[in-house]
Design goal:
By secondary structure, the chain is of the alpha/beta class. The protein contains 16 helices and 15 strands. It folds into two domains: 234 residues, 3-Layer(aba) Sandwich (Rossmann fold); 165 residues, Rossmann fold (3-Layer(aba) Sandwich), CATH 3.40.50. The two termini are 16 Å apart.
Amino acid sequence: MATFWFVSAPLVSHTDWGGLMKTAQALQRRGHDVTWVSEARLGGWLAQHEIPFAPIRATGWLWPPPPAPDLSNLPPQEAVNLRYKRALDTWLTEDLVADAVEALLALADDIGAPDLIVTDPFLSGVALAAEALAVPLVVCGWPAQASLNAQQLFPVQQSLGTDSQQRIDRLCRRFGLEGTNFDRGPTPSIISPHAHINYFSRGWFIAEEHTLLPQNHFVGGHPVTPDDEAPQWLQDIPAEQPLALVTLGTVFTGDLGFFSWAAQAAVHAGLLPIVAIGYNPLAPEKKAELKAALPRGTRLLNWAPFEHVLPRTRLMIHHGGMGTTHAAVVHGVPQIVVPHAADQRGQAKRVAQAKVGLNLSAHDVRQGMLFEGVLALANDEHVAKTARQLAEEFRALGGPQRAAEIVTGILNGGAG
């Protein structure tokens, strides 16, 4: 029996990535000792999934981020630089990362170091702590990619890349480390020399094929078979009624206009909208405003159980979060993605490249293209067939069971 730590930022979405938590559960079923490590706020969520939890004071992830500044009066280059720096600060604020390293080393002193650490892709403190503990690191959810050539970068990217590298260098000196779990090129990132496990297919990243490194493993995934009954509100909807699931995940939940426009477009195409707005609290007046803007019959929820809803869903309209996108793919559901930030733009492009849906910008939505897109996809059998074929491709790759084999294989001198 081996001992594994799974470490994530203290956000529910960071326990997913298409299969991170399921990989931990697969290792548990094989008899291994699995502990999930994050900040205390995730304790209730982990308890629901019956995974032992070790809270630490910091994971190195800056959350919540500071309020967004007003960029409207700044020169364009300065505004872009500020946006890039805010993104960098999220995963590489030095004092916060150092606090995470110290917390992880203290945990190892308390309960013993693991044989291997599995991490979500953006926890710099975990990358440093794994080196300090001399245990292998596996990154789940994001492929290992070669650094871009410095000559291909815009000046603002070059500047931020230099800043990133300087921050990593200072942290390495602080803890007496070499930074073996970081790419030291002009666009620094966390890179495991052992394995990166991604819950999509290699073909999903076809546009980036030339940048993918050898330690990548693409394991796809498959739908979860529910072990409980569908919620009553879903049972009450006639089985022949096609559904549209509308969500912005768990973070970008304040865009009330998106929910309203997507629901109106769904009804226009003959679909019943299921709108899941997340658990971030809405002021009562805002929620009342949203309810008034939704078509009659819309189901307005904080959360929708994908395993029950997606098998009945004709179309999913969402933000492009990796876990949400993955869920739509493995259920063979066509998608319309309106990205709001960060990696969502990449996911939106890949949805379009795979021909399983559309990539729309916020401007496109304001121009009425969401109505056109929903109407086009709701009854497009070719797209539906392509989505089903992609789901079968993902299923054949093995999913979290294959990920568990890869992780245990590293301890046996290989990579599964």
